């Protein structure tokens, strides 16, 4: 109770009202597919956390856009809230340590929290030439992953690179880049693809773990069903235009202004599983198709090769 009071006081000091926070918890509960009865329980996960699992966040072949997306575009201060319910032991983008000290921090964290930490992996892993296409402190990404991930309690691959290889794995892929699950032959990795993924799907996965003590149910690609069980097309507000064969054929046209379907300018919504139309981005402001841009299928395996050339009808 005391901790909860402190929590809400801290929120207020940052200009976030209890009402705003509950609104966020309501959105999160709905995204996770839970009934409204869970809203207060989910609020408690943040306000009075029972445990703060250690997290080791590894970066491999990627652009850090997933970390940036998570840290910069959430509902106000939710990035901070999540960092408070987790004990982030290692994260190259946000930690103060560098060089030798950073390496020591990684080794010490893996040793200290063996079997208890959540390993979040951002980026894909080069597998050819002994992993020679990517190294940190003289160790290949492959070696770092092999030495770290098997010691984790759970592994989350954040972003399409970690999940399926992403851009580094696009043809001709000389380094043999692969998604983390494929490179290490993992059966139980949670994949949260997207380029970048929606931060709310990552938060939902973590909150599911803290609330129920287990990771969410996954599809055959390792993606949480709560976020990836439907296609973009099946949730799209432009769907009636598709059914009526009302298509945008040229950007900037009258049809585009009318909000017609983007299929003929390359929308891959029918082939893409993700919750963008309901979760949206930037505090629920909008999402690509709402802004007039076709879905490019960023959360599907091999999307750079399979979904391109972009802007052309399949
Ligand atoms: S804009 Fe894309 S996702 Fe929406 S209805 Fe058209 S094809 Fe489907
Ligand atoms: S609309 Fe499509 S391309 Fe855009 S973020 Fe969602 S899944 Fe990725």
Q: Strand pairing plus helix content: what structural class? A: alpha/beta
Shape field? globular
Termini separation (Å)?
56 Å
For the biggest sheet, the summary is: 5 strands, parallel
CATH architecture of the largest domain: 3-Layer(aba) Sandwich
Mean pLDDT: 93
Biggest β-sheet: strands ordered side by side in the sheet: 2-1-3-7-9
Rg, nearest Å: 20 Å
Helix content: 25-40%
Distinct ligand kinds: iron/sulfur cluster
Residue runs with pLDDT of under 50 for 5 or more positions: none
The count of β-strands is: 9
Going by CATH, the homologous superfamily of the largest domain would be NADH:ubiquinone oxidoreductase-like, 20kDa subunit
Give me the number of helical elements. 16
User: Which strand-content bin applies to the residues?
Assistant: 5-15%
Number of domains: 2
CATH topology of the largest domain: Rossmann fold
- SSE succession: HHHEHHEHEEEEHEHEHEHHHHHHH
């Amino acid at each position: 109770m005391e901790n909860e009071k402190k929590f809400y006081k801290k929120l207020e000091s940052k200009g976030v009202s209890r009402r705003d926070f509950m609104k966020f918890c309501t959105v999160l509960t709905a995204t996770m597919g839970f009934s409204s009865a869970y809203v207060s329980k989910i609020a408690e996960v943040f306000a009075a956390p029972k445990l703060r699992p250690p997290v080791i966040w590894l970066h491999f072949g990627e652009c850090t856009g997933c970390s940036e997306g998570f840290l910069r575009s959430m509902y106000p201060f939710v990035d901070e809230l999540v960092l408070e319910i987790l004990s982030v032991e290692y994260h190259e983008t946000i930690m103060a340590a560098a060089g030798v000290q950073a390496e020591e921090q990684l080794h010490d964290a893996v040793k200290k929290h063996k079997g208890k930490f959540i390993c979040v992996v951002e980026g894909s892993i080069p597998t050819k030439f002994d992993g020679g296409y990517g190294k940190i402190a003289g160790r290949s990404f492959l070696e770092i992953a092999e030495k770290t991930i098997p010691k984790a309690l759970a592994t989350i691959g954040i972003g399409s690179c970690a999940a399926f290889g992403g851009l580094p794995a696009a043809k001709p892929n000389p380094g043999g880049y692969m998604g983390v699950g494929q490179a290490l032959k993992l059966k139980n990795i949670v994949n949260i693809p997207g380029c970048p993924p929606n931060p709310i799907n990552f938060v939902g996965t973590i909150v599911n773990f803290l609330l129920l003590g287990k990771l969410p149910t996954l599809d055959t690609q390792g993606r949480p069903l709560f976020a990836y069980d439907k296609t973009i097309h099946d949730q799209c507000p432009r769907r009636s235009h598709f059914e009526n064969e009302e298509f945008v054929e040229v950007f900037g046209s009258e049809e585009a202004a009318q909000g017609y379907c983007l299929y003929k300018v390359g929308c891959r919504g029918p082939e893409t599983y993700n919750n963008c139309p309901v979760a949206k981005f930037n505090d629920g402001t909008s999402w690509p198709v709402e802004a007039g841009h076709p879905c490019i299928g960023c959360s599907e395996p091999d999307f750079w090769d399979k979904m391109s050339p972009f802007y052309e009808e399949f």
